[in-house]
Write a structure and sequence with these properties.
The structure holds two protein chains of two kinds.
Chain A lengths: L6 H36 L14 H15 L5 H24 L13 H15 L2 H16 L3 H31 L2 H16 L2 H12 L3 H25 L3 H9 L4 H12 L1 H17 L1 H4 L8 H9 L3 H33 L5 H24 L1 H4 L6 H45 L2 H33 L3 H31 L1 H16 L2 H12 L3 H25 L3 H9 L4 H12 L1 H16 L2 H6 L4 H11 L4 H27 L6 H10 L13
Helix pairs in contact in A: 1-19, 2-29, 3-6, 3-9, 4-5, 4-16, 5-15, 6-9, 6-12, 7-9, 8-9, 8-28, 9-12, 12-15, 14-15, 15-18, 15-22, 18-20, 18-22, 19-29, 20-21, 20-23, 20-26, 21-23, 22-23, 23-26, 26-29, 26-30, 28-29, 29-30
Chain B lengths: L1 H20 L8 H15 L5 E6 L3 H16 L3 E6 L2 H6 L8 E5 L3 H7 L8 E17 L1 H6 L9 H4 L12 E5 L8 H7 L4 E5 L3 H14 L4 E6 L3 H4 L3 E3 L21 E9 H5 L3 H8 L4 H12 L5 H11 L1 H8 L2
Parallel strand pairs in B: 1-2, 5-6, 5-7
Antiparallel strand pairs in B: 3-9, 4-7, 4-8, 4-9
Classes of the chains: A mainly alpha, B alpha/beta.
GO molecular function (chain B): transmembrane transporter activity
Pfam families (chain B): OpuAC
Keywords (chain B): Signal
Chain lengths: 685, 329
Amino acid sequence: MTTLAERPPVREVEEDRSGVWASRWAWAVVVLAAWVVVWRFTDGVDTLARPVRESTPLFDRLSDFRDAVLASRDTNPVVQATYAVGQWCVDATDWLSRMVSVPDFPRPVPQVGWLGVLAAATWIGYAVANLRIAVLVAASFATFGVLGYWSDAMDLLVITFVAVLLAVLIGLPLAVYYGTGGRVGVGLMTSLLDLLQTMPTFVYLGPIVLFFGIGSSAAVVCTLAYALPPIIRIAGHGIRNVSPTTIEATDSSGQTARQRLLKVQLPMARATIVVGLNQTIMAALSMATLAAYVDGPGLGKPVLRALTRNDVGGAFVPGMLIVLMAVMLDRTTTAASRRAEIAARGGDDPRLRRILLGGGLVGVLVAVWLSRQQLWAAEFPESDLGGRIADGVDSAFGWITSTFDGLTGAVKDTVSTVLLNPLQSLLADSPWYVTGLALLAIAYVVGRRRGLVSAAICLTLIVLLDLWHSAMLTLTMVLVATLLVMVLALVFGVWMARSRAVDLVLRPVLDAGQTIPPFVYLIPVLALFDPTRFTAIVASVVYAAPVAIKLVADGISAVSPSTLEASRSTGCTTWQEIFKVQLPMARNSLVLATNQGLLYVLSMVVIGGLVGAGALGYDVVLGFSRSEEWGKGAAAGLTIVLLGVLIDRVCRAAADVPKDTTGARTRTLLRSKVPVAGSPKSGLI
Amino acid sequence: MTNHRKRGARLASVSAVAVLTLAACGSGGSISEETAANEEKAAAGGECGEVNMAVNPWVGYEADAYVYGAVAESLGCTMNYKDLKEDVSWQGFGTGEVDIVMEDWGHPDLEDKFFAEKGDGSAMEVGPIGNVGVIGWFVPPWLAKEHPDILDWNNLNKYAQDFATSESGGKGQFLGADPSYVQFDEAIVSNLGLDFKVVFSGSEAASITAFQKAEENKEFLIGYFYEPQWLFADIDLQRVALPEYTDGCQDDPAKVACDYPETDLNKIASTSWMEEDGPAQKLLQNFSWTNDDQNLVAKYISEDGMSPEEAAAKWVEDNQDKVDAWTQS
């Protein structure tokens, strides 16, 4: 919509759109003003607030249901069946980890030692991608060993491998259905995937143990539950979006539905399917620390253990190794799909590759043989580098907290008094029906009828779940956090788009922010900001800002250079260029960035509960920690899901109407929730 | 089922080994020697078998678990440590995934579900571990020194404003704890008419960080805490006296207006595992030590940076007399 030929219609839409949005903003302000006036007179009435450690009949009923399942576990056929599946997972992971990670008794070491594993992994890196990837893989594996976490890293790889394998086996058929099925079925599936992706893991971690057993089986299942949605969504999206003309053309030659799927739809959607696989792997890795709560093996274990002794450096090193593993797998899958494309087009020198692969294979066999025979090749040589890095991080962290303590306290107090407290009073201290009506009115103003209907359903269910007040406290924090995320996204997104150097420096930092387990930085942010709502906000901004920044940067980079040229020739200053040309033209990306930012922030609500934010996050952790409170945790988890659906549907309704103002790309992206940049909407908890 | 599963796994691993042997003919150096030694050891011992030890997420518990494990291994047992929270650990008794929980701070709900009287009988009490759990309201030592009268709850309102934070809405802030613990603080605050608001830290890490910071920067802080805990080796938190605990004063959660009782911590084990009645079970029955013992091992782990295994081995070596008392009965 930026080419000159399209100019006139675009301008028309543009004017139409700004007119619509101006009136919407005006209405929103009116609603807000009325709300403030009513709140003035009703402050503190009917807020539905209740003591944090108080139960209700609904929570008790939910807990009773869980108890009934628990009591029937020896006779319940469903539990028996899932338990058998769990045993299979245990067997598979157990066998794999005795191959590469833990001593296979009576051997003092695993079947294949580090040298063999490293050589084999490097060879695979070259075989599926290229020499650069092979070097990256070798360096990553060496780092796991040098920093002293070889066994934990192998365990995490094993769990990730088994879970991703299952995700592909289960996910691809479902993706085919998702891409070709009817409206009702797909709609139902969308809701289910929404639930899987937004329900906090702590809610179902306990029941998973009940159904599948403790340890690697629980780890595989909870990783699977979380890693399945991306591949279904993205691969399904790819299959659905195969160009209709292609399908028509091939249909006209009389193909069967099966042929259409296998010969046309799947091959043409291959690139998207690989993106889905990539996102599934990233989602799987983001579950590493949570799985450790139920004795899931892997790098999450040392992270959690360090947390119990407030050992910042000790959590940092394994946390960064998780990031490293994510980067390694991400680059490998991406490069592999690119290579497959090149090979398919025949643009490759097969002879040289074959020679290198053959020679490499001999090397791998020698390495495997050595690592089975020689202790030095079986056990990674000890080094104190990991410990030294941990100490360095500790002292750096000590310096930061003592130096910036006053400043961070001031920032916290300012944001709390200026933003958090007033908004919280309005949302949570108004009578529930006033807040509810005001939210409905806003949903109608921005999303018209569709927004109103979605909001009405979600808000009603939230009231019925008995946690209205907590939900409003959480909503306040989510809104403030998203505001901060968008401020960062605008500043850094524009900066990155305008300067290649900034982009190069920032991207890896953003990748790390998205993949590092929040448990690694909980203690630093706690030391800087105390157990407060603001600490929770900081943690969620660290996690959510990277996605929003990337989306804004990509959107602005996509503004056509000829448009910029034109604006420059009319003598625009840099600021005018940004505010009058780049930002307005990247509006689609801004809408998308806000939507994704909100959902990413929401997925950090539970982490917020761990650092003093209270509200729904605390309730979820409570439910996981004390069995009699499970019902409350489940209700809180459902409330979080409802908040997510509410925000998402209202955003989408706002983007959809009227007259396609946000453009087809945003709508498809919002609709299919393709995680455009980096890891998916991964509720780390 | 376990046997069946092991056989399957073994079969699979044997076939893989067969594949690998293609590349690995001939005999190696020390690996094969150690393998032979392990086989011999397995043939010689084997009376004790495997012990599945739940490791709940706090350092004092790790001290219990690994000291037990160090002694059990010297008796020929094989230890499987499983990092789990309390609830999940108890669920594991019935399935054979967990045999021992070393330190129970009181979980009436879990007891109802898994003890024989009311529940499925998969778990049983094995008696006190010797540690005494002290739960209460604590302040950092600098505060107790500067304002000694703060250690009496009657004077807390006088200082309420000093305890105010961005979270406490104009009142004093009381820092509630990790949700894993039984807490009546909201009721106590309101029933004693204290001008405080309970703000829940949400995790042990958050509470510890807050107390460390309060002591370092001489900030006002009052909150829920407990002993034994490794933090006391670092900062000697002072307990605030609440109206004394009397039997039954905590029966109605909404009306609690008294202090927390001291709790004798109990060892819990799987009923079917206890029935085997071997050396591991006897060791568990006899295992008993003091708060000071536990704190010392916890200090080795948290302050001195030892691994739990190293810390336990060191304590066992230094306290052979106590260990002997557990193993000779």
